[in-house]
Specification:
Layout (H helix, E strand, L loop, with lengths): L60 E14 L2 E13 L4 E9 L2 H13 L3 E2 L11 E5 L2 E7 L6 E2 L2 H10 L4 E7 L3 H13 L4 H7 L3 H10 L1
Parallel strand pairs: 7-8
Antiparallel strand pairs: 1-2, 2-3, 3-4, 5-6, 6-8
Helix pairs in contact: 2-3
Length: about 220
């Protein structure tokens, strides 16, 4: 008779542990968690979108109203270019708008910001709102702005909001009619702000400074 061999199984060796203290069940496959270099949801994220910046630069706040991408078909394929509509303001009655174009988004935003800063104008405001109701048109866009009581806030769309907020308006009621083209709506809003006049400016333009002085003394 052949000798019987002991076939009892030896105890299995424990799996190697990773640096985090957990066992690795995939051999040499990399850990797919959210740590550094992982592909999961970890603390590392990409750069934040910088198309809308509320941080003051040179005393002005820059906002991106709209970015448009256009393509040109050439022999080698398509060539893309970008245009950016930028609004800048100091939130104290000064606002400007400019358009920039470039092969990259950052380049278009930079050019648009420079053009906007060179076209800054002064807007007549009444504390935190506008002095009177105003209506303006540009192309197919129509914008209506109405003064609002303190605490109302900005009741308007994102395009109108970017313009009036940069100018320093905190309470306003608005209605956008006609075309929804962001460029035309922004330009109509800017024209509406530029047409605002305070009571003092109207009386001075009509040569009624004496009446203004009498009203001031009575008050």
């Amino acid at each position: 008779m052949s000798e019987q061999k002991d076939i009892s199984a030896a105890p299995a060796a424990p799996a190697p542990a990773t640096s985090s203290g957990t066992q690795s069940f995939g051999g040499d496959r990399p850990h797919r968690g959210g740590g550094e270099g992982g592909r999961g949801r970890g603390p590392r994220r990409g750069p934040r979108d910088q198309r809308d910046s509320d941080e003051p630069k040179d005393g002005l706040i820059e906002k991106v109203v709209h970015i448009n991408r256009s393509s040109k078909v050439v022999k080698g394929g398509r060539r893309f270019s970008f245009s950016a509509l930028i609004v800048v303001g100091d939130k104290q009655g000064k606002v400007g708008m400019g358009m920039g174009k470039g092969a990259e988004v950052s380049e278009a935003i930079k050019k648009g910001g420079e053009n906007a800063k060179s076209r800054i104008s002064v807007v007549s405001l009444a504390t935190n709102t506008i002095p009177h109701e105003v209506y303006s048109e540009f192309g197919g866009a129509k914008v209506l702005l109405r003064p609002a009581s303190p605490g109302t806030g900005l009741i308007c769309g994102k395009t109108v909001r970017a313009v009036v907020e940069s100018a320093g308006v905190k309470d306003v009621l608005s209605k956008s009619l006609g075309s929804k083209n962001a460029s035309n709506v922004a330009k109509a809003t800017l024209n509406a702000l530029m047409s605002l006049r305070t009571r003092e400016q109207i009386l001075k333009a009509r040569g009624l400074e004496s009446r203004l002085a009498a009203t001031t003394k009575t008050a």
